[in-house]
Amino acid sequence: MVQGVNQDSVSAWLAANIEGVAPPFEFTLIAGGHSNLTFLAKDRAGRALVLRRPPLGHVLESAHDMGREHRIISALGVTDLPVAPALAMCADASVNEAPFYVMEYVEGPVLHDRASAEVLTDAAKAAIGYDVIDVLARLHAVDPDAVGLGDLGRKEAYLARQLKRWNKQWAATKTHEIPAMETVSALLEERMPEQIGSAIVHGDYRLGNMIVGEDRLRAVLDWELCTLGDPLADVGYLLNSWILPGDPLAEEADVPTATGGFPSREALSARYAEATGRNLDGINYYRAFSHWRLAAIGQGVYKRYLVGAMGEDRDLDLEQYKMSVHTRAEAALALLEG
Q1: What are the φ/ψ torsions at residue 145 (nearest 5 degrees)?
Q2: Which residues neighbour 98 within 8 Å (Cβ) at sequence distance 6 or greater?
Q3: Residue 312 has pLDDT above 80, yes or no
Q4: For residues 197 and 38, what is the distance between their CA atoms, to the nearest angstrom?
Q5: Domain count of the chain?
Q6: Buried b vs exposed e over 252-285: b needs ≥16 C-beta within 10 Å?
Q7: Comparing 244-248, 249-253, 282-286, which segment has the lowest mean pLDDT?
Q8: Is the same domain home to 45 and 139?
Q9: Does a structural domain hold residue 1?
Q10: Does residue 109 lie in a domain region?
C-alpha cells in the first residue's frame, strides 16, 4: 500500500485510459514533501509511467492544479523542448481522492546534490551546463499563443505583480525585524526595469528539476509554478542556484555546481544573451529579486513551523532556517548595492 495512490481504482483507470499498458501495476513514491507528489507506476511488462498528484491533505487547489500542469507539458510537447510526454489527465477526484495526471517515464539521474555531480567528468558538466541555458533560451522563444498557452497568465507587469504578492506574504508572516527585506523591497520598486516582451516563465528552473543523460537535458520537470511574464526572472533564479567553487556559500551548499567543472555564470549569461538578443546588463536586479522572493517564501515556511502548523517535521533546525531568510535578504541587498 502506497500512501497517496488508491491502487485498485487508479490501476483500473490507467488500464482504461492509457493504450498498451499491462496491469497489475506496482507503485512507488519518487518525490514527496509539501509540493506535488510524484509516483512511479510500473506494469507487469515493465513499462514505466509517472503519476503526479497534489500533496496529501492539500488545501489550496490553485496551488496544486493538476490540469494546469498537464496542460503546460502537453502544449510544450509539440516543441523541441525536453519535456516528459503527457499521456492522460484524471479530473475525477473520486478515483484517487484528488485529480492526477500521467506522463511517460524519462530515464536518467537528477543532479540534486554534490554526490550526483561528482561522478561526472568536467566535460560532461560543461556540456550539461550549456544545454541548461540553451533550453531556457528556447523556452523563452516559444510563442505562448502559438502553443495554446496565451491565457496561462497576464503577460505584462510581471515584476510589479510579484512585488505586490510577496510584500503581502512578508507582512503576513513576519515574526521579527529583517531591515534588509524592507530596504530591498524599496530598491526593487524604485529600480524596476521595463519589461521587454513576455515569455513562458518556468518559475523554478534549476538542475534539481531536470533529468539528464548523454551530457544533455532529457526532461525539464516541475512546471507547477509556470506562468507568463518577464523571462529574465528565470535567468536570475538560475544564476542564483548556480553556486560555484569560490562563491561565499559554496562550502555549505549541497548543490551539484559546487563540485566545479560547470560553466561560469558569466558564460551562461553571455550564451543566453547571444541566443535571445536580450540585454543582461541589469541581471543583478533579477538575481536580487529572486533572493528577496525566496526570503519571503522562506519566512512563510519558518512561521508555519514556528507555530506548529507543520509539526510532523520538528527535526528542522528552526534557528538555522531563520538565519537562511536573513542570508537571502542580505544577498539581495549586496547585489543591489554592488
Answers
A1: -65, -35
A2: 53, 54, 58, 66
A3: no
A4: 34
A5: 2
A6: ebebbbbbebbbebeebbebbbeebebebeebbb
A7: 249-253
A8: no
A9: no
A10: no
Q: Which residue has the higher pLDDT, 247 or 292?
A: 292
Where do runs of H (alpha helix) occur along 77-149? 93-96, 114-118, 122-141
62 with 169, same domain? no
Q: What is the mean pLDDT of residues 137-151?
A: 97
Establish if 310 belongs to a structural domain. yes
Exposed e or buried b per residue across 75-112, where buried means at least 16 C-beta atoms within 10 angstroms of its C-beta: bbeebebbbbebbbbbeeeebbebbbbbbbbbeeebbb
- For the stretch 163-218, pLDDT in tens is 999 999 999 999 999 999 999 999 999 999 999 999 999 999 999 999 999 999 99
Residue partners of 289: CB distance under 8 A and separation at least 6: 159, 162, 163, 188, 233, 236, 332
* pTM of the model as a whole: 0.92
Give the number of other CB atoms < 10 A from CB of residue 28. Answer: 10
End-of-domain residue from the set 104, 132, 160: 104
Helical spans, DSSP H, in the chain: 7-17, 66-76, 93-96, 114-118, 122-141, 158-173, 179-190, 232-241, 265-276, 283-306, 318-337
Q: At 121, is the pLDDT very low, low, confident or very high (cuts 50, 70, 90)?
A: very high
Q: Which domain holds residue 222?
A: 114-337
Distance CA 195, CA 125 (A): 32
Whether residues 260 and 323 fall in one domain: yes
Model pLDDT, residue 320: 84
Decide: 163 and 185 in contact? Cβ < 8 Å. yes
Between residues 243 and 60, the one the model is more confident about: 243
Nearest Cα neighbor of 182 from 330, 82, 73, 314 is: 330
Q: At 201, which CATH number?
A: 3.90.1200.10
Cell numbers placing 314:
520538528
All cell numbers assigned to 116: 550526483
Closest CA to 79 of 152, 141, 155: 141
pLDDT for res 63: 46
